[in-house]
Write a structure and sequence with these properties.
Layout: H1 9-20, H2 28-48, H3 60-84, H4 94-105, H5 119-150, H6 152-165, H7 170-181, H8 184-209, H9 213-221, H10 226-264, H11 269-278, H12 282-309
Length: 313
């Protein structure tokens, strides 16, 4: 038995049109593909960015305390000074000294002859002598410290001499310089040299002697030359000791030059202090004391910065 199903011509034509119509892609498909591609391309970029480091909060309390503490100490010093000189007719007050300092530093580089120059010139001449005497002491003292530290024989020979000469007062060396050089300027440089050489010799020698023995044994196994032992092993290990000796020496040199210039005369901060005393100008003497202290502090801080810069720790 054959069964037949009849369709209307309208249905047949609609079915034919549907079969011939082009397939229209879904409207959500491109968006989905684009989103996927975007996520694939963005994801690696987002993953490659490092996380921002956390911000460390500023400790304002510690910063203020660190800043105000030195100022409070200076204020205390000036306050005690003002109280002690309140009714004094001979010792100047802080206010009077400040007025004299303003006038003095208004023209620090005037020159009215070899014996009448501003405080700026006197400081520069003193620093020049310190640099020359200290430089010569470093050129001699540091290599000599390496030699003493490396050789037990030389160490035993020179240790008694160093122990004998090191405690001698700086002013005791000045007449020897005047006798030998017949001039005040070389005599002052000689005094700086002989007084500032000992800390560099001693600290450098101690640093060499404290180098671990294992380092030197490795150098022997590798058959290194003495120059390479000094430059590659000893120098990095000895550098902190050596810089400590340099700091002590420059402080000693700055102390010595003031005393030496008081006796030798000429141009320099020491002579300037003595000249102001002869003129009974106590205000300028107090100003010179502060200037000498500030210059010494700057030299000390400069060498501390150099020590930190070249530290191998």
């Amino acid at each position: 038995m054959v069964s037949a199903v009849f369709h209307s011509p309208l249905d047949a034509s609609e079915a034919h049109k549907a079969s011939r119509a082009p397939a229209t892609p879904s409207s959500s498909s491109p968006m989905t593909s684009a989103t996927a591609l975007t996520s694939l391309s963005v994801a690696p970029t987002a993953a490659a960015k490092p996380a921002a480091p956390p911000k460390i909060p500023t400790d304002w309390g510690a910063l203020i305390l660190k800043t105000l503490s030195p100022l409070a100490g200076l204020a205390l010093l000036v306050g005690i000074w003002a109280l002690l000189t309140m009714n004094s007719a001979t010792f100047p007050t802080p206010a009077a000294t400040w007025k004299a300092a303003v006038v003095l530093f208004s023209d620090p580089f005037y020159s009215n002859g070899p014996n009448d120059q501003g405080i700026g010139w006197n400081i520069l001449f003193s620093l020049k002598r310190v640099a020359m005497g200290f430089g010569l002491a470093a050129l001699v003292g540091i290599p000599l410290g390496f030699i003493i530290g490396r050789s037990k024989v030389i160490s035993s020979m020179l240790n008694p001499i160093i122990s004998l000469l090191r405690p001698v007062s700086p002013l005791a060396w000045l007449p020897i310089g005047l006798l030998v050089f017949k001039s005040a300027d070389p005599a002052a440089i000689w005094t700086i040299f002989i007084c500032s050489i000992w800390p560099m010799i001693i600290n450098t020698a101690v640093g060499v002697q404290r180098v671990p023995e294992d380092y030197l044994n490795v150098a022997k196994v590798l058959n290194l030359s003495e120059w390479k032992i000094v430059t590659k092993i000893l120098f990095p290990s000895v550098l902190p000791y050596m810089l400590t000796g340099v700091r002590l020496s420059v402080g000693t040199a700055w102390l010595v030059i003031v005393a030496a210039e008081m006796l030798t005369g000429g141009v320099g901060i020491g002579f300037w202090v003595w000249d102001e005393w002869n003129n009974l100008n106590v205000q300028h003497i107090i100003i010179a004391i502060f200037v000498i202290g500030v210059v010494g502090l700057l030299l000390e801080n400069a060498l501390v910065a150099v020590a930190k810069r070249f530290s191998f720790e």
